[in-house]
Amino acid sequence: MQALRIYAGPRARAHVAEYGLRPADVGIVPAAAGGPKGMILGPLDRFIFGEWLAQSNQPVDLVGASIGAWRMATACLRDPISAFARLERDYIAQDYELEPGRKTPSAAQVSERFALNLESFYGGRMQEVLQHPRYRLHIVTSRGRHLLRREHRVATPLGYLGAFLTNSMHRRAMSAWLERVVFSTVDALPFATNDYRTRQVAQTEANFQPALQASCSIPFVLNAIQNIPGAPAGAYWDGGITDYHLHLNYNAAGQGPLVLYPHFQKAIVPGWLDKSLKWRHGATHFLDNTLVLAPDPAWVKTLPNGKLPDRTDFTRYGTDLKSRVAVWSTAVSASARLADEFREWLEQPDMSRVEAL
Question: pLDDT band for position 103 (50/70/90)?
């Protein structure tokens, strides 16, 4: 059984058929939201950023939401192999002492701990990210509007109900409640923005960590980040709400560099509220120049519990940290096959393995 499956849009497939895939061909790397699922991509991240892309010198735009933003910021650190290894260890080992009378940690508790973790991880190293000689980082966040302009115990649930209802009718209509705000280290975005209400903000030392934490701040699980320096006032939440899997228009000009997308599934779902809207899960022309690397669903069934690590494991294992760590570590160790198979395919590209996205 092969662990890795490769999917390609028509432009990407034609390119690979003629030239194979070379490090210099890649101009964009997206990284999806998805919490613990992102850990399955650690071995691929270490190979791609620590070995393969290092063989080229072109600029590469890294676009991330939620855990994907954390991964892409990590790719910008010196020695990305050790940085990704630390991210993996820290994420797997996360644990929260429950407050008396609670079965789950409070949003304030999780937010406080996460802020400390980010400070420990990036403290003193922000310039490595902001001034990377090749990688241009774009952190996607969701800024609340109207009822969602600030976090409130009544207004916030009502605002998200409104977002859910409007999104069900039309994705773009949800921008009445939430807008995409991208914090970037360069002026130009690597995707078109006429699909959804979008703002861009310059990434600085003052707003890097608040923006990264906002991009990971799942509503009701973590607190929103309010009034990020240099950005429009308001409450900022998880970038996956507006852009769950970053189904963005990377192909606006019908040309340009390839998009290499290590992902944990074939479908690239536009927003978090689109998860149950299956008709929005198919590939569009936005992804014509995209090559997706994803685990085979049959291989995923061989992992502990027959699935990728996900947020339900926090409930499944509760305070049994040792068991959760063991299960997640086993899954991540097994995912080394994804990187091994990609390395082998690059050496001898087999078009029979490249499926339509």
Answer: confident
Residue type, 52: W
C-alpha 40/C-alpha 90 separation (Å) is: 14
What is the C-alpha to C-alpha distance for residues 2 and 24, in angstroms, rounded to an integer?
Answer: 27
pTM of this structure = 0.97
Distance of CA 149 to the CA centre of its chain: 24
Structure tokens, 234: 């308001």
Rg (CA), the chain: 19
CB neighbours (10 Å) of residue 205?
Answer: 11
105 forms bridges with which residues in the sheet?
Answer: none
Is residue 216 very low, low, confident or very high in pLDDT (cuts 50, 70, 90)? very high
Give the angle subtended at the CA of 171 by the CAs of 166 and 172, to the nearest 5°. Answer: 95
Half-sphere exposure of 251 (CA within 13 A, CB side): 18
Return the domain boundaries, the chain: 4-356
Q: What is the pLDDT of residue 132?
A: 98
Whether 35 and 238 have beta carbons less than 8 Å apart is answered as no
Please state the rounded mean pLDDT for residues 79-95: 96
Q: Is the pLDDT of residue 255 over 90?
A: no
- Judge whether 309 and 328 are in contact, CB under 8 Å: yes
Are 333 and 40 in contact, with CB atoms under 8 Å apart? no
Q: What torsion do the CA atoms of 267, 273, 278, 282 make, to the nearest 10 degrees?
A: -40
H helix or E strand, kind and range, residue 295: strand 290-295
- Pairing mode, strands 235-237 and 135-144: antiparallel
Q: How confident is the model at residue 102 (pLDDT cuts 50, 70, 90)?
A: confident
Nearest to 139 by CA among 270, 280, 238, 219: 238
User: How does DSSP classify residue 224?
Assistant: P
Q: Tokens at residue 105, please? A: 């940690």
Burial class (CB in 10 A: 0-12, 13-18, 19+), 188: exposed
Give the largest CA-CA distance in the chain.
62
